Amino acid sequence: RQMCIRDREWALVGQKGQEIYAEPRGTDLAGRIAEAIRATVDGTAATDLAEVARRMVEARHVDVFGAGVSGIVAQMFAYRFSRIGLIARGFSDSFIAEEVMGSLDRRSVFMTISETGLTAQNGQLLTAAGERGAYRVAISGRRIADLSKLCEKVLIATPLSPLPERGELGPSVAKIVLCELLSDQVQALRGEG
Left if phi > 0, otherwise alpha if psi is -120 to 50, otherwise beta: which for 61? Predict the structure, then answer.
């Protein structure tokens, strides 16, 4: 049987295998997210993913920082990376972030996640990580020239269109896709993929 979601109501429609589908609305959230995901995947160079993944595999640890919703996403990145055998820590507390700086060196990867790209806090953390020799990666919803100056690599999670309001969860999906792309690359490097 095939299920259809229409106007938030479930309706049974015909018998045609076990497909489930939802009819898209003009600029619905699912369409906006799908477009952002496709643009993120298409717009991310395989060489960039491979370079970051190589650095992650070689690193003693991968630290991922984000504030607010991005902090939740940072925890998800760390969880995923840990599940594929990397030593990864995700955090959103700026005091912990400053303490983590003491463990960074040239064998570390330090990532920031932010929808807006460059906050004062991210700038300070990326600068400090660079001073300690860490390989720095920014996962950003915006392409900002100053951010590129603070990192070895910037990976863009294409923002939703129209742009979301602060605190919306929708933009997190493209960031999670970048996490999966990096995880795939790490596993391929290790011969697991």
Answer: beta
